[in-house]
């Protein structure tokens, strides 16, 4: 304990970093289940080489943690918190290669104070393992290139492969590596080194499970994440709302000071490269190679395409190290103050839920819904099966709490993300009855919906609306779900 106190006295910034992480750990028991938690938990309970939406790393992690520590919302959140804490430690090891001690601690405060670190500490998404393996990849590649430690090419290849097994965005790692070598006069010769190619080949081998699953399933996941997403761009059209929406997201995730520093140094280095044909030092060029393609690249398409708020997250790793080279103590203090205000606001909302959230992307209500649905099922002798049609959220949430299968819109023949790949034999449900649960996201009254989905009508002999399920009535946590009793399911092959 004495050594620990001496360490904090020697590095006062450490107390801020520990403080932010302690705060996040404190909040874990108050965080309810998010739909994403439930969906990726379902991944882990249905082990596969890969999955429709994403590779399976987050599912494997949740499976390990819940098998060892038991199934609970806290354990799921604790898994996210633990992996993200490892990411912060890996970031420290990486940043220490580039920054002086003072600048190092500034960068540590920057990364610890961001909202994006809080999000991946609380919410299960593929970004949780992606950020860890991205950071390790850059760390190992630096040691392989700059310190000529050949075995780190092996570790770098493994880490890049595992990053891809977390999320497809990790492909930007190989792009960053190649881009650095192309622009580096000093290290361009490494293209002739067998170690580089061993690294790249090994990274591809590690991703084999994802490719094999896609091969077996007509490359469904690759198609979903590429052509099917880009097909939403019917014509080239500038949409200012998308651009300013992306800026708003980044201001929230990074907070205004850090985001502004990102913009300033990006503009500075790109201007020098394009106008003066001058590249930065080898160290900074290396960091930029893993920042510019992802951060600037995605920003360039925001005027025409909706870029999700988490797509740029991997670029933050090296971006924050560069920011640590520039940011002053004064700006750092402002960043910390803003961060504290934001985190207190978040904690207040999590614990007291002052502001109602009119969305299914919320951490309240799922357990209460499962209790009410189970009671409703028990009113029927045949125990009707359950399904929902909101993509994955209600179905995954009910699956987490109920010891039974809950189906999605695949019941009525519509695409249902990874629910289509769970090998559920819908024919065994033919002739049985079901309860269709439909979330009323806006919840303005307690009335029935008064309308029945056409796809549901086509797949059952009769459909009758029941009284809605109202949970946490009269509070900010209140939610409403429409309920339909569907008889005689007509399973179609």
Account of the 3D structure:
The chain is an alpha/beta fold. It folds into 2 domains: 2-352, no CATH class; 366-489, no CATH class. The protein is 58% helix and 7% strand. It has helices at residues 2-10, 13-27, 35-45, 57-69, 73-95, 101-113, 115-122, 127-146, 151-164, 171-183, 194-206, 208-216, 220-225, 227-230, 240-254, 256-275, 282-289, 292-301, 315-326, 329-352, 366-378, 393-401, 454-459, and strands spanning 385-387, 406-407, 434-440, 460-471, 479-489. It has a 5-stranded mixed beta sheet. Strand 1, helix 22 and strand 2 form a beta-alpha-beta unit. The longest helix is centred in the C-terminal third of the chain and has 24 residues, at 329-352.
The stretches of 5 or more residues where confidence is low (pLDDT under 50) are none
- Kindly name the structural category: alpha/beta
Mean pLDDT score: 93
**Would you list the SSEs in sequence order as H and E?**
HHHHHHHHHHHHHHHHHHHHHEHEEHEE
- Helicity range of the residues? 55-70%
Distance between the termini: 66 Å
Strand content range: 5-15%
Query: Main β-sheet, in a few words?
Result: 5 strands, mixed
Q: Domains counted in the coordinates: how many?
A: 2
Strand order of the largest sheet: 2-1-3-5-4
Shape: globular
Taking Cα atoms only, what radius of gyration do you get, to the nearest Å? 25 Å
Number of strands: 5
Number of helices: 23
């Amino acid at each position: 304990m004495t050594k620990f106190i001496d360490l904090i006295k020697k590095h006062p910034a450490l107390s801020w970093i520990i403080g932010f992480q302690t705060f996040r750990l404190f909040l874990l028991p108050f965080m309810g289940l998010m739909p994403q938690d439930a969906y990726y938990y379902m991944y882990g309970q249905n082990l596969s080489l890969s999955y429709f939406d994403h590779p399976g790393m987050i599912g494997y992690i949740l499976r390990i943690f819940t098998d060892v520590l038991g199934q609970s919302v806290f354990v799921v959140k604790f898994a996210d918190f633990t992996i993200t804490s490892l990411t912060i430690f890996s970031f420290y090891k990486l940043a220490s290669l580039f920054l002086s001690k003072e600048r190092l601690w500034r960068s540590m405060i920057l990364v610890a104070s961001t909202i994006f670190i809080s999000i991946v500490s609380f919410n299960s998404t593929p970004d949780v393992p992606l950020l860890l393996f991205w950071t390790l990849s850059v760390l190992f590649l630096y040691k392989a290139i700059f310190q000529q430690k050949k075995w780190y090419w092996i570790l770098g290849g493994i880490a890049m492969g595992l990053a891809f097994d977390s999320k497809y965005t990790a492909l930007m790692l190989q792009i960053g590596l190649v881009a650095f070598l192309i622009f580096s006069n000093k290290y361009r010769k490494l293209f002739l080194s067998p170690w580089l190619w061993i690294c790249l080949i090994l990274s591809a081998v590690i991703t084999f499970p994802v490719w094999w699953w896609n091969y077996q399933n007509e490359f469904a996941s690759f198609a979903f994440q590429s052509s099917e997403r880009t097909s939403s761009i019917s014509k080239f059209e500038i949409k200012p709302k998308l651009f300013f929406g992306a800026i708003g997201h980044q201001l929230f995730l990074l907070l205004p000071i850090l985001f502004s520093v990102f913009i300033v140094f990006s503009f500075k280095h790109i201007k020098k490269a394009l106008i003066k044909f001058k590249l930065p030092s080898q160290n900074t060029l290396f960091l930029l190679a893993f920042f510019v393609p992802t951060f600037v690249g995605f920003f360039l398409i925001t005027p025409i395409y909706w870029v999700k708020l988490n797509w740029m997250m991997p670029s933050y790793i090296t971006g924050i190290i560069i920011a640590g080279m520039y940011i002053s103590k004064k700006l750092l203090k402002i960043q910390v103050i803003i961060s504290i205000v934001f985190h207190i606001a978040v904690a207040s909302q999590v614990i007291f839920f002052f502001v109602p959230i009119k969305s299914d992307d919320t951490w309240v209500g799922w357990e209460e819904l499962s209790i009410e649905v189970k009671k409703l099922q028990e009113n029927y002798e045949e125990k009707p099966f359950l399904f929902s049609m909101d993509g994955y959220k209600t179905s995954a949430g009910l699956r987490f709490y109920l010891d039974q299968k809950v189906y999605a819109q695949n019941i009525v023949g519509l695409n249902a993300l990874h629910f289509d790949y769970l090998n559920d034999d819908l024919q065994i449900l033919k002739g049985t009855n079901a309860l269709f649960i439909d979330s009323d996201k806006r919840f303005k009254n307690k009335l029935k919906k008064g309308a029945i989905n056409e796809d549901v009508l086509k797949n059952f002999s009769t459909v009758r609306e029941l009284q809605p399920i109202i949970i946490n009535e009269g509070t900010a946590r209140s939610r409403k779900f429409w309920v339909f009793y569907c008889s005689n399911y007509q399973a179609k092959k």
